[in-house]
Specification:
Layout (H helix, E strand, L loop, with lengths): L11 H10 L9 H14 L15 H14 L4 E5 L7 H18 L2 E5 L3 H7 L3 E5 L2 E6 L1 H6 L4 H6 L5 E7 L2 E4 L2 E6 L6 E6 L1
Parallel strand pairs: 1-2
Antiparallel strand pairs: 3-4, 5-6, 5-8, 6-7
Helix pairs in contact: 1-2, 1-3, 2-3
Length: 196
C-alpha cells in the first residue's frame, strides 16, 4: 500500500483490478465482475471518473487511494498498511487519516496500521500497540495509552512530555530534599523520574 507500488503502465482501473485478474482457476472472477468491483472501489475511495488515468497523472494522495482500493479489491482477511502516508505532506496526511478512518468504519476490514507518527496512531486506531526495538511496550486503546502510559518510552511516545529527577522516600515523592505532596505508595524508595 504505497504509491510507488502502482503499475505505471496500467490505468487506475487496471491497477485496482490487478489482484483479481491474476487469480487462477475458479477463484478468478469474470472480467465483467472485475470491472464492477474496480468501479465500486473507485466510488468508495472517491476517485470515480479517474479510472482511465495513469498513476503519473494523479496526485500523491490520489495514488494512495488507488493503492488502498487495489489492496481492498481482493477482500483480504487482514489489511496491512505500512507507513501509508510517509511520503505525503502534513496537510494531505491529516485529510487522508480522516478519510481512511471513514473507509475503515464503512467496510469493517480488520486493519493493521504501522506508523511512527503518534498522532496517526492515536487518531486512527481502535487499539494501539506501542513497540520499542521490536518489543511490545503497551497495548490498549488510544485513551488507555494516553492516560496511563506504563513506561518512560510509552510516555515519550504520546507526545510532548517533561520529566524531573526525584527521590521516593517512604511512599512520598521528594524534589530537592523536600516532599512535593505527591504520594507514590507502591514505588520503592530511591532515585526515580517523575513524568508530567
Amino acid at each position: 500500500f504505497q504509491h510507488y507500488a502502482l503499475f505505471r503502465h496500467m490505468t487506475v482501473a487496471d491497477n485496482i483490478g490487478f489482484g483479481l485478474k491474476v487469480r487462477h482457476g475458479p477463484s478468478r472472477p469474470p472480467a465483467q465482475e472485475i470491472r464492477r468491483r474496480a468501479s465500486e472501489l473507485l466510488d468508495l475511495v472517491q476517485l470515480s471518473g479517474l479510472e482511465k488515468r495513469y498513476p503519473a497523472q494523479l496526485s500523491g494522495g490520489q495514488r494512495q487511494r488507488v493503492a488502498l482500493a487495489r489492496a481492498m479489491a481482493i477482500e483480504p482477511k487482514v489489511l496491512l498498511l505500512d507507513e501509508p502516508f510517509g511520503a505525503l505532506d502534513a496537510q494531505v496526511r491529516r485529510e487522508l487519516r480522516r478519510w481512511l478512518r471513514e473507509i475503515h468504519d464503512a467496510t469493517g476490514h480488520t486493519t493493521v496500521f504501522v506508523t511512527h507518527d503518534q498522532e496517526e496512531a492515536l487518531e486512527l486506531a481502535d487499539r494501539v500497540v506501542v513497540m520499542s526495538q521490536g518489543r511490545i511496550e503497551q497495548v490498549g486503546t488510544a485513551d488507555d495509552i494516553y492516560d496511563t502510559p506504563n513506561s518512560p518510552f510509552v510516555y515519550g511516545f504520546i507526545g510532548e512530555s517533561s520529566s524531573l529527577p526525584v527521590k521516593v522516600e517512604n511512599g512520598e515523592i521528594w524534589l530537592a530534599d523536600r516532599p512535593i505532596g505527591i504520594a507514590a505508595p507502591n514505588e520503592p524508595s530511591g532515585d526515580a523520574t517523575l513524568y508530567f
